[in-house]
Amino acid sequence: RTLRIGLIPGDGIGREVIPAGRRILEALPSSLNLKFSFTDLDAGFETFQKTGNALPEKTVETLKQECDGALFGAVSSPTTKVQGYSSPIVALRKKLDLYANVRPVKSVGNGDKGGKVDLVIVRENTEDLYVKEEKTYDGPNGKIAEAIKRISERASFRIANMAGEIALRRQRVRKTGAESIHQKPLVTVTHKSNVLSQTDGLFRETARNALAQSQYNSIGVEEQIVDSMVYNLFRQPSAYDVIVAPNLYGDILSDGAAALVGSLGLVPSANVGDGFAIGEPCHGSAPDIQGQGIANPIATLRSVGLMLEFLAEEKAAAMIYKAVDGNLEEGKVLSPDMGGRARTEQVVEDVLKRL
Amino acid sequence: RTLRIGLIPGDGIGREVIPAGRRILEALPSSLNLKFSFTDLDAGFETFQKTGNALPEKTVETLKQECDGALFGAVSSPTTKVQGYSSPIVALRKKLDLYANVRPVKSVGNGDKGGKVDLVIVRENTEDLYVKEEKTYDGPNGKIAEAIKRISERASFRIANMAGEIALRRQRVRKTGAESIHQKPLVTVTHKSNVLSQTDGLFRETARNALAQSQYNSIGVEEQIVDSMVYNLFRQPSAYDVIVAPNLYGDILSDGAAALVGSLGLVPSANVGDGFAIGEPCHGSAPDIQGQGIANPIATLRSVGLMLEFLAEEKAAAMIYKAVDGNLEEGKVLSPDMGGRARTEQVVEDVLKRL
Ligand SMILES: CC(C)[C@H](C(=O)O)[C@@H](O)C(=O)O
Ligand SMILES: CC(C)[C@H](C(=O)O)[C@@H](O)C(=O)O
Questions:
Q1: Is A220 helix (H, G, I), strand (E, B) or coil?
Q2: In this protein, which residues make up the domain named Isopropylmalate dehydrogenase-like (chains A, B) (predicted)?
Q3: Containing domain of residue A255, as a range?
């Protein structure tokens, strides 16, 4: 099988980590019978500055027509307001209907603060405040701006199903004897329905209904108001297995969870739709370290694994995770964000040799 | 001077901690020349169940006409959707135009995880998604619900001014020789304007303009996107002094910050308007421990201090903070959430004897 992969480095350190993603795909053993072809694609703030469009139509069309999956690096957010600029990753998620943003956060070795962590945040990826329907008008005392937060039954149902499937899959992997801090699958539904009774109320109710389906019988279901979710995430992170949340809460929770394992540079994500997945490291473009060759490639390498999982190549994914975990457990070849001194290049080499 | 204080215990442990608030006011030394009169007022889920209204008109009118300040306990959120019920504290904040929610989070002694913390979250308290303008309609694939997120220049400006004033006040207190981890006042503006360019963009721009006024010359101003704010809050909490945020982010950030100091049971808040303040512990009604007499009264006692600060009784406030810090530094009479065995009553006694 040949998988056709779009490579969208974007801005900043996106350009330093996406090549690492390509390298690990090329280094997978031939016994897997997997081949890859690559297409370089543009997006990001620099693309916007050159062409007036942060997400060229060509990028979207190539992904739709000629790719099975993709890797996305990062995009710079302009530090002041720039007319007409709008985040290409948010647009891409919607245009390809990548309705789930899956973000596993796992401590390897002793973890950092707060002990063992092995959870995954399943974030709705197409609606909520990310519909970006905003308007501004003049009020009696200055400007007033409004944004729409939209929650649909359909999107809430499918994201909760995705959370259910992921909880079952994690349980299956544990049954193969993989070490784990969890005994039993658990999905935690996060919302703020004590204030937003209709929107978050719909999310909560729909998610509960989805998870009450008989195929999810073996899964424990709990819920948490988003503010206490953040509190509990920090107090007892080991209690959580799968967390499902609307778009914005998922965004915030995944950065919060990343803080628990020492560095955003470790945390991968996949933007997942039906039959398509884009791997994307959770760190941003990191202008403070760009161009120095010291970006942590781990988040990208793990995102490659995640992308493969969702393209039904679980075996290849498992090999990548194992190689990455080996690097972290040994803890000798680490990038500066992890307290080490290795360069991006050296971390990649160390992981590749463990494949 | 006699201050007229409304007491609104609400539900759950609110009823166990608000009496502690009253007791510390009554125990203040007569040398302060402060007297208090108290009025008991109803609000909460139980009030709703009895009367069909979670926030009786009488409570609002009494606060407006006969009180200088108030203490609010907590309200239970129903675990399933209840027709017509709506959170009384959110309504109260709006009805009394208590536009700032001020939440100081401070580690005493060694703090808990992540080292020293001494920050205050200044949360806009009247708008954002808390305007609760929602609607639900039928879409092609099931229900769709929408909520309005509203950000105004006026509310953003006054909350940023409040943050500036608080930063200056904290700096003044430090100059009197109070021990502190901060050298220089800093205000961090939190937003998500990379996605919400109009609403959060307006908040960001207005806050920056407010803080650029000459009276705030000595204050450092930074900004953080809300997701990285949560990340950084956990990685380097000691870096933050004053954090100003729209309503919902402020809600989430303050629970996050509470996790850093060991217990929500320590974190106070004040809902502040022009000439009126309601002290409110940040913990909720805690149904799991209600009626057992073991609720931590510290958050309420500190909220009493905060209320007094905003009613221009800084000296009385400082005495309360000192007594509370004494209890925590000694660390002998602590409630169960802090790993101790003391009952609410005993913690209160221990603080009172330090006044
Ligand atoms: C860059 C930004 C638009 C994006 C988001 O908010 O989704 C990022 O924070 C992420 O989590 O992927
Ligand atoms: C109870 C709830 C409505 C409230 C809020 O969201 O403001 C609470 O979380 C708080 O922080 O005071």
A1: strand
A2: 4-351
A3: 113-260
